[in-house]
Amino acid sequence: MEAEAKQLGSDFLALEKFVNLNYQAFEKLLKNHDRLMPHTPCHQFYMAKLRNQDWIRNDFSDVFVALSDCHSLLRQDDSGTANNDAKQDFVRNTKKYWVPTEHVSSLKHLILQHLPVFRVWTGGGDSQLINSVYFDNRQMQLYHGRMDKTPGAIALRLRWYGTEIKSVFVERKTHLDAWTGNVSVKERFVLDEPLVVPFLNGSYTVNEFADDMKRKGKKDSDIQEACKLFSQIARVIESKQLGPTVRTQYMRTAFQIPFDATVRISLDTNLAMVREDCCGYASTITERWRRDERIPVKASEHTHFPHAILEVKLQGDVENPPRWVKDLLESGMVTEVYKFSKFIHGSAVLLTELVAAAPYWIDDVSIRDSV
């Protein structure tokens, strides 16, 4: 059965490659036509029709879910459940890699043979939309702290999942290992969306937050921890005058055996970054905490990243990961980018007048056009 499941995956990858090659061939033919016959251009008209064809428009992510389910049954994995607690903190060793888009499907197929697609949302597909708004001030103190690998350097962000904003996670990431920068802790609590602005401007107090958690039936220990984090983040926002600076948006496919955090892998595709209007002015957070999406974004205020981002998170014996993880990282499909950060990259590209230094990867030839 395992051999049959692998063959199904290989057949799908061959079909996807065939589709992509045909698409590229059509586009090249049309470009050549327009070059040779500039008075009767066809490229724009026929490419618009081509993009509406079912074999181009179809979302094949459900195929990966089905393949994942097949391998999961063979491994006899348990079913996972979402962690809905307000408190969610853990220490992890994380390394990040760039993945050229042409390798994304092959990489997914390789991973799902060992880890199932971990889905905690309703609906189809193997990936979930994630938005994060990162905070900093006009001096970009948090940015430079992360760049300099300052011990205890933090990143603050507001994150939500899916297209409808009901709950917003207030998250703080703290680097613990100043030498390698690979060990960090993430802590977070959750707010209902209407409470985000009152939290940021200080009109929503920690006592009101504790009362709301009690009404939701949360445990006393969780309430205590969440309130501690609430107060700490509120003080940092006020003392450093933090405000929204950069927003990231991408589709995330997560791979993890339920209830087993030994190896967790995420793959982020279609990564876009947008400059926020407030740009570090906490005093302006009176009505909005993120960009008004009805207002068009200027070309200079957004960028699309050309690669997918692979994150490999390990716990336990991080120096000796499973053999298949080593094979994955040595497959030639991924390139490790030490300390890559979406926040740092977005800030360096979109807030050039505020940052004093740019990350080393900014000069990589493969991302030159996006920069």
From TrEMBL:
- Which residues lie in coiled coils? none
Protein's membrane topology: Multi-pass membrane protein
Q: Which InterPro entries match?
A: VTC_Complex_Subunit, VTC_domain, VTC_sf
The VTC domain is annotated at 92-350
Q: Does Transferase show up as a keyword for this record?
A: no
Subcellular locations according to the entry: Endomembrane system
Mind listing the UniProt keywords for this protein, alphabetically? Membrane, Transmembrane, Transmembrane helix
Question: In terms of one coarse class, where is the protein primarily found?
Answer: membrane
Membrane-spanning intervals of the chain: none
**Record's keyword annotation contains Zinc:** no
One Pfam assignment: VTC
Q: Which PANTHER family match?
A: VACUOLAR TRANSPORTER CHAPERONE 1-RELATED, VACUOLAR TRANSPORTER CHAPERONE COMPLEX SUBUNIT 4-RELATED
| Protein's recorded name | VTC domain-containing protein
Q: Which organism is it from?
A: Guillardia theta (strain CCMP2712) (Cryptophyte)
Taxonomic path = Eukaryota, Cryptophyceae, Pyrenomonadales, Geminigeraceae, Guillardia
